[in-house]
Amino acid sequence: MPKTPAAPGGPRADAPLPRADAPPPGGDTPPWTRNDALVTVGAAAVDLLGFSFASQLDHGYVPPVGCVLLLVAALPLLARRRAPLFTLAAVLLLDLVLNLSVPVGQHFTVTTVVALYTVVRSRGAAVVAGAAFACAVMPLVGRPSQPGTVEVVGSAVNVLLVLVAAAAVNRWHRENEANRRLLADRAVADERRRIARELHDIVAHHITTMQLMAGGARANLAGNPEVAREALVTLEGSGRMALREMRQLLDVLRAGDEAEKEPTAPQPGVGDLAGIVGETRRAGLPVELDVRGEERPLPPSVGLTVFRIVQEALTNARKYAGQARARVRLTYGTHALAVEVSDDGAGAAAVSAGSGYGLVGMRERVALHGGTLEAGPLSGGGFRVAARLPLKAEEGALR
Asked: What is the pLDDT of residues 312-323, one digit of tens each?
């Protein structure tokens, strides 16, 4: 998918996404979020607790000035999402004041960790490098004694751990975003294929029926007007049905538009097989409908799949079988539903040599339900389509 270039002055294309709890832009929003306040309070509490214990152990007392400076140093964290660099600079400056004001040992405060982490998450490599250097040097400045190797290495390791953690989180967010985009693209492709299947089935069936009805009406217009009238009535009904089904299908693409005032009809299912069989008979192809097993309610998606399979198979039979007879057999099993459509005509070769979009659509529909489909010519002539759709235990138990 091509990337859309960022607008001038806008965020970089590779910048990390804003967090879910980040405040939305606008003048009416508070300057910080609840999570920012919790992080600030937590960092201040941990720093104050550590400073108190260390001062008590090293000097036998806790300097009040140091406690105040630690609390004040945590306050800039409230603005860390809006101004991460300003926040880090304020924290480092107050840490320097702490080093110069009270005797304090080697320290790398939680407030500094949070401020540096925020900068790494939101800024580029050059800014991060400068911020990391400042964070590594600042705890060593202003101390009464010259820092030794252990202090220098310890400060560098603390900064390195923060950089690694922030980089790992950034990478995790990028991978999650890539996965979300991949899933969204896959969902769009699946929806396009579903719409293509529906459109093919609707157009192929109804246009074929209308073509045959129009031809029958024209052939009987002079000799048998009553037959011609019935054919025209069927043609009109088929055209109305095609428009209604296409309208329902196109409603899927009209997200955000005003809803239709007329209620849409439900998707066809197994209960509509008698209607499609009767329509096929009126179009000139004798069809027998055979239902076996105990009939029971089915999930709408399974019923629609069965209906479309029968619809497409009968459409192919009318187009290619010639003077033939067809049979539709629906078998309810304990754990599966089987549907079979066969004819004894001479159009198997034509179906096999055709574009195959109808058969591909059948296979995709059946595969979505974890079923199997067989389609091919019969040894004695004709063509057969057979599908088996598994039913879950709770579906098979419906009554």
From this structure: 888 888 777 667
DSSP, res 397: T
The 8 Å CB, 24+ separation contacts for 313-316 are 313/341, 313/362, 313/385, 314/205, 314/276, 314/277, 314/280, 314/285, 314/287, 314/341, 315/204, 315/205, 315/208, 315/209, 315/358, 316/347, 316/351, 316/358, 316/383
What is the three-class DSSP state of 198? helix
Rounded to the nearest angstrom, the gap between the alpha carbon of residue 171 and the centroid of all alpha carbons in its chain is 21
Give the residue among 153, 57, 47, 64 at the shortest CA–CA distance from 108. Answer: 47
Spatial distance between the Cα atoms of 77 and 222, rounded to a whole number of angstroms: 91
- Residue type at position 302: V
Q: State residue 351's pLDDT score.
A: 52
For the chain, where are the E strands, in sequence order? 287-292, 326-332, 336-343, 372-377, 383-390
Which residues have CB under 8 Å from 277's CB, separation 6+? 287, 289, 310, 314, 328
Cross-strand bridge partners of residue 120: none
When the pLDDT of each residue in the chain is averaged and rounded to a whole number, the result is 76
Contacts of 376 (CB under 8 A, 6+ apart): 348, 352, 383, 384
Tell me 339's DSSP state.
Answer: E
Q: List strands edge to edge, sheet with 372-377.
A: 287-292, 326-332, 336-343, 383-390, 372-377
For the chain, how many residues are written?
Answer: 399
Nearest to residue 109, comparing CAs of 137, 139, 68, 133? Answer: 139
**What pLDDT, on the 0 to 100 scale, is given for residue 2?**
42
Rounded to whole angstroms, the Cα distance separating 171 from 349 reads 55
* Of 311, 298, 314, 307, residue with least CA distance to 269: 307
Q: Are 304 and 366 in contact (CB under 8 A)?
A: no
pLDDT for 388 equals 92
Q: Which among 259, 351, 350, 273 is positioned nearest to 308, based on CA atoms? A: 273
Within 10 Å of residue 148's Cβ, how many Cβ atoms?
Answer: 11
57-101 pLDDT, tens digit each = 777 777 888 888 888 888 888 888 888 888 888 888 888 888 787
Number of Cβ within 10 Å of residue 268's Cβ equals 20
* Mean pLDDT of the 39-45 span: 87
Amino acid at 144: P
Full-prediction pTM beyond 0.70? no
